[in-house]
Amino acid sequence: MSLINQIDQDIKQAMLAKEADRLRGLRAVKAALLLAKTEKGAGEELTEDAEIKVLQKLIKQRKESAEIYKAQNREDLYLIETQEMQVIEPYLPKQMSHGEIELFLKELIGRVGATSVKDMGKVMGAANKELAGKADGRTISELVKKLLV
User: What is the mean pLDDT of residues 45-62?
Assistant: First the structure.
């Protein structure tokens, strides 16, 4: 079942259960997926990778907004953003732990032959490709910097 079909089913369930918070998050996901599907250059159907990128973008937007709201003491808006993140996250692949990412990066650095921070671009390119959807880009970047120093 495609992700859009799964979202449609979950929207129906949320409507029947009168779960307003979940419904808001699911509708945001559906809108983003439909927008990505109709963008120029997109094919008939979104690939799984494209769907994951859309979901990751939504999560990143909500994290950034939540941080801003928290800093401005807007707990009401902060709560909305965190609730929507909790609705979106189950549709993403299981995220790797900090330790798992670090082990993977150590192995990757050895594989590509990186020795200094100058090789960061080479490592980041390979890491982002292999860890797509499984790890946050910011976390990967921070760990690569730490490991290459």
Answer: 87
